[in-house]
């Protein structure tokens, strides 16, 4: 029933969005970019981090003369970590706010919910962190108005499976996955398809669960080398904490959903040992582009930026580059220029857009000890 209601809500929203988004008016003094982000709700840490990164990028671009002689204006709306709300926000940004492009959402489910809205309005959407493979391509069809700056779940799953085998010498794995999350299901499939060893057990939970002791007790005495948790920080942090408290000492693997300070808050630093996760960037990098970004972000927000802030920062700069290359703030032309992005030098790596609107870029596998990054390993595509 909930799925039917959500679908009807999306259809109703689409019905109100008649016509394409117009972009900036010729006499406008600014060029509007929308931000459709999870600023409240269960995964608000991601959306908040992305807003901070996007805001910094807009401020820097404007200080350096803007784009095509105009300032960028970031129009932020909260999708409340809700799929139906994400569709509504996308429609409002595209048809009422007349943005030239949209940054976000942060999560794959919210991106897919917003896709019909941006497609109907013909306004491009760049997700910083929607990693589900089907975000840009579904059933062989490329979504014309959807792009991303992050790598895909299939790449993360392969990278983690190979890392487990080659770097951790793992021959047996246990998976604790979220059966209600497209993100988790995609990561699980990719890992299982790539892992050379045995999957000893696979158990599931659903988003919002808090007590994982029964699941962990079930696997505790099994013979395995690594525990793989394809999940967002909200559940992953609690699983890690409860696993360590039950005496499960094996290395823990996770994807980019681990990359937020909330993971440390939930798991507690003392439990985050021998933990590895795929990441889009490291703030420990000595690349001048990264060090400049980290310094500027710290000055603005009094904290170190995470990967989600970095991805959103790159998203805005990539949109600005597309507007510049288009020669005008026209959504259709900006969409076309996004598809042509090549060797874009971002803080999360060099990006070339492939024919399915996915960036060709490397990833990192970061190791945590006492909740802090102690090393990172580059994994090439």
What does this protein look like?
This protein has two domains: 30-151 and 286-361, Response regulator (Rossmann fold); 153-279, Response regulator (Rossmann fold, 3-Layer(aba) Sandwich). The chain is 42% helix and 21% strand. It contains twelve helices and 17 strands. It has helices spanning 2-16, 44-63, 83-96, 108-121, 153-166, 182-194, 213-220, 233-245, 261-267, 288-301, 307-326, 331-339, and strands at residues 30-37, 71-78, 101-103, 125-127, 137-138, 141-142, 146-148, 172-178, 198-205, 226-228, 252-254, 275-279, 344-346, 349-353, 359-360, 363-369, 372-379. Helix 6 (182-194) links the parallel strand 8 (172-178) and strand 9 (198-205). The longest helix has 20 residues, at 44-63.
List key phrases describing it.
disordered N terminus; 2 domains; seven-stranded mixed sheet; Rossmann fold; 12 helices; 42% helix; alpha/beta; 381 residues
Indicate the percent of residues in helices: 40-55%
Structural class from helices and strands?
Answer: alpha/beta
The CATH top-level class label of the largest domain: Alpha Beta
Unreliably modeled segments: 1-19
User: What is the correct CATH architecture of the largest domain?
Assistant: 3-Layer(aba) Sandwich
Largest sheet: number of strands, sense, barrel closure: 7 strands, mixed
Number of domains: 2
Query: How many helical stretches?
Result: 12
Strand order of the largest sheet: 9-8-10-11-12-16-17
Write the H/E string, N to C: HEHEHEHEEEEHEHEHEHEHEHHHEEEEE
- CATH homologous superfamily of the largest domain - what is it? Response regulator
Strand content is 15-25%
CATH third-tier fold name of the largest domain: Rossmann fold
In total, the number of strands is: 17
Please tell me the overall pLDDT.
92
- Rg, nearest Å: 20 Å
Shape: globular
């Amino acid at each position: 029933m909930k799925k039917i209601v959500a679908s009807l809500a999306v259809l109703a929203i689409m019905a109100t969005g008649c016509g394409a988004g117009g972009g900036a008016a010729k006499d406008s003094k600014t060029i509007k970019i929308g931000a459709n982000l999870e600023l409240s709700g269960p995964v608000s840490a991601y959306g908040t981090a992305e807003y901070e990164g996007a805001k910094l990028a807009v401020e820097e671009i404007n200080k350096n003369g803007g784009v095509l002689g105009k300032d960028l204006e970031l129009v932020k709306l909260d999708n409340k970590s809700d799929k139906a709300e994400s569709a509504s926000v996308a429609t409002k940004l595209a048809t009422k706010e007349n943005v030239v492009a949209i940054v976000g959402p942060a999560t794959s489910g919210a991106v897919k919910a917003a896709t019909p809205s941006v497609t109907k309005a013909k306004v491009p959407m760049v997700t910083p962190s929607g990693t589900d493979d089907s975000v840009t391509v579904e059933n062989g069809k490329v979504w014309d108005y959807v792009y991303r700056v992050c790598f895909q779940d299939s790449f993360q799953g392969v990278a983690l499976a190979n890392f487990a085998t080659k770097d951790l010498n793992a021959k047996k794995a246990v998976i604790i996955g979220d059966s209600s999350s497209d993100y988790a299901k995609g990561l699980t499939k990719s890992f299982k398809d790539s892992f050379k060893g045995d999957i000893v057990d696979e158990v599931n939970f659903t988003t919002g669960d808090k007590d994982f002791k029964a699941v962990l007790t079930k696997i505790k005495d099994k013979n395995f080398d690594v525990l793989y948790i394809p999940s967002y920080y909200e559940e992953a942090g609690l699983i890690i904490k409860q696993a360590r408290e039950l005496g499960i000492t094996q290395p823990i693997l996770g994807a980019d959903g681990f990359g937020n300070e909330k993971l440390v808050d939930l798991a507690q630093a003392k439990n985050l040992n021998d933990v590895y996760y795929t990441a889009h960037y490291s703030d420990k990098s000595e690349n001048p582009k990264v060090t400049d970004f980290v310094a500027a972000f710290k000055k603005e927000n009094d904290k170190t930026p995470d990967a989600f802030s970095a991805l959103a920062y790159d998203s805005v700069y990539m949109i600005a580059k597309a507007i510049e290359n288009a020669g005008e703030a026209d959504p259709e032309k900006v969409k076309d220029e996004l598809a042509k992005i090549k060797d874009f030098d971002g803080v999360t790596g060099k990006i070339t857009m492939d024919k399915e609107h996915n960036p060709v870029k490397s990833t990192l596998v970061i190791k945590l000890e006492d909740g802090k990054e102690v090393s990172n390993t580059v994994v090439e595509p």
